[in-house]
Fold this protein.
Amino acid sequence: MNLKVRRAVVKDIPKILDLLVQVDMVHHNGRPDIFKGPATKYSAGQLEKIISDSSTPVFVCVDSNDVPLGHAFCVHKQVVGDSVLTDIRTLYIDDICVDSAARGRHVGKTLYDAVISYAREQGFYNVTLNVWSCNPTALKFYEAMGLVPQKIGMEKIL
């Protein structure tokens, strides 16, 4: 399969919205007490602003017909002048999704590799993300990509 990663554009928004519902449903199925499902965390208007903002790059992995098969939402982060934290620049992956119909075709790895390349080119110190423990498939994927836990969020349901 001929895969290419590029920055998302406005014409990709309908497919991105579909992918966001898929992400939400994975989380809803794992934690219906937290995630409403089916929903998207961004509206089309919000996506337009995110896509046009250079500090929130969105990448799409497309097939030979330029149809998005997956996305990666990223956010530039840096805390400057903190009394405890250093001033490192972090590229945070806010959301990554591969269309359920395209899984197993290396779309996720292609997207992830492109994000890492972008982060290196832009001089980021590290790339971080959060993964829900109710999503073991994603956790295994990220571990296979070489990510290791940085911190662990814990809860007690009351």
